[in-house]
Amino acid sequence: MAIIAWPEIEGFHNIRKYTSAHPEILNGKSVVSYRCKVKLHGTNAAIQCHMDGRVIPQSRTAELAVGSDNAGFAKWVEDNKKAWTLLNNHVIFGEWIGPGIQKGVACASIPKKSFAVFAVRSMENMETLIVEPRDIKHVVSGIPDTYVIPWYSQMITYPVSGPGMPAGPVDTTLELTIDWSSDNEVLQRTADRINEWVGAVEANDPWIESVFGVKGTGEGLVFYPVDHDHDRYTDFSNLVFKAKGEKHKNIATAKPAQVSAEAAASIDAFVSMVLTTARLEQGATAVSPNGALTYDTKLMGKFINWIQADVEKENQDELEASGLDMKQVQKALADKARAWYLAMWKAV
Fold it and tell me: What is the average pLDDT across 150-165?
């Protein structure tokens, strides 16, 4: 069975560039309304729930099974298979989080591994994507160790009461309205707001604290288009974007959200910019057996190939801004990735 993959999510400047080059993806409406959810640093996971009772766990790139697992996700799905068989014709997307999956973040310190759901896709109509947390709860309610990530909110103090709104601090869902046809100055003001929000999440993941009572670092935010002009799966894939905090960025940009791609002055500068510790650790985890981070020189070739492929996939805009192409940077990427991996292997 083919996997039904969660789309790759790019950054703010990627969407700005894409909508400028292909305005047709905006369906004639350049203004898009967004809400955001906390981005959890676990491992991407999903469950296909078929009408015939088949329940198929998957990672971002492969179908999973108990003998070919990713951090125990397939085993957990198998243990709860009866509950998942009731979710006919849906794919449930989320993040598999908990002890041993990642490190240095709040969601790695929760008591046990859990599935944090952020979207549901219909298998009957693949353009139907459910991202509203209340609607997702109706789908997955009652399944053990399964949670729904809410819209990100902050306590905002309202000095004057209004209709249905008391004066004083109120937990308020944050929203953005972005006109992707705006000039750099206008879009920069939006990026500045995003960067403030991401800074707050990185300082402490509010959802993990509220649900599990654990304080610690959050990864960032994912921004979902939520208006009716852009609510199909295709619209989501084209317009969703992410902003990561400093500790989890795969590229050493000045800010989490930027209006334009970062430019490097040389090949070495480009390599230093894109080979952050977060990306290197992500690559090492991706090539490790069963998703459990392992440093093994036998995996070196796979690791270097993963790093080069990931940079080529995610950093075309930075290459272009720097006046470089992938052929020019491949050797330097391999050399630095190899040196890092060997250092980590020796330190174990």
Answer: 78
pLDDT of residue 200: 96
Q: Is residue 50 situated within a structural domain?
A: yes
User: 6 pLDDT exceeds 70?
Assistant: yes
User: Measuring CA to CA, which residue among 93, 137, 68, 71 is closest to residue 237?
Assistant: 93
* Final residue of a structural domain among 125, 148, 171: 148
Strands of the chain, DSSP E: 31-39, 43-49, 55-59, 90-97, 114-122, 129-130, 146-148, 153-158, 168-173, 175-179, 220-225, 241-244
pLDDT digits (tens, 9 = 90+) for 29-64: 999 999 999 999 999 999 999 999 999 999 998 999
Domain tally, the chain: 2
Q: d(Cα 279, Cα 276) in Å, to the nearest integer?
A: 5
Q: Residue 288 carries which side chain, given as an amino acid letter?
A: S
Range of the domain at 91: 43-148
| 76 contact partners, CB below 8 Å, separation of at least 6 | 96, 113, 115, 145
Give the burial string for 238-276 (b: 16+ CB within 10 Å, else e): bbbbbbbbbbbbbbbbebbbbbebbbbeeeeebbebbbb
In b/e form, how buried is each residue of 124-142, taking b as 16+ CB within 10 angstroms? eeeeebbbbbeebeebbee
Cα Rg of the chain, angstroms: 21
> Reduced to 3 states, what is the DSSP secondary structure of residue 345?
helix
Q: What is the CATH number of the domain that holds 121?
A: 3.30.470.30
pLDDT tens, position by position, 66-80: 989 999 999 999 999
pTM of the model: 0.86
Q: Other C-beta atoms within 10 Å of 31: how many? A: 14
| DSSP-assigned letter for residue 323 | T
Residues facing 263 on adjacent strands:
none
DSSP SS3 for 133: helix
Contacts of 132 by beta carbon, 8 Å cutoff, 6+ apart: 226
